[in-house]
Design a protein that fits this description.
0% strand; 71% helix; single chain; receptor; transmembrane; odorant binding; rod-shaped; sensory transduction; 136 residues; mainly alpha; olfaction
């Protein structure tokens, strides 16, 4: 567990590199024969990133729903033991669940946009540095 934050940062770095590298390879037309493989890599990265962030957002939304359902249940006629269990559930579900660790943004729709903006900015930087103008 000591090296877990470093693994997370390394995986995010690899994800960003695996998105920007094929896009630069395609737009710079380094090897038109290999572009099909680069398209497959790019589509795989996009799908993988989107699915992970969508499921994390779904987890957050469902935890908000759980808190609402726990508040609205009819607990007046329950036994004391069940009321205490409900109280513990309410206390622990006040804040929605988020998949965030050690300062890395939580996985949600906002993270998808941040990764896309960063990837696009990096790709634009590489294209301008190599002298090619990207026309999308």
């Amino acid at each position: 567990m000591k090296y877990f934050p470093y693994c997370t940062v390394a995986l995010l770095t690899v994800a960003l590199i695996s998105f920007v590298s094929p896009a630069y390879f395609i737009f710079a037309k380094i090897s038109p024969v290999s572009n099909f493989r680069m398209y497959i890599i790019l589509i795989t990265c996009i799908v993988q990133e989107s699915v992970a962030c969508i499921y994390c957002q779904h987890l957050t939304d469902e935890s908000v729903k759980l808190f609402g359902y726990a508040q609205n249940c009819h607990w007046v006629n329950w036994e004391k033991r069940n009321k205490n269990a409900l109280l513990i559930l309410l206390i622990h579900s006040m804040e929605p669940l988020q998949t965030s660790q050690y300062g890395v943004p939580s996985g949600n729709y906002e993270l998808i946009l941040k990764i896309w903006r960063t990837g696009y900015a990096t790709l634009t930087l590489f294209m301008n540095a190599s002298g090619n103008i990207m026309k999308i």
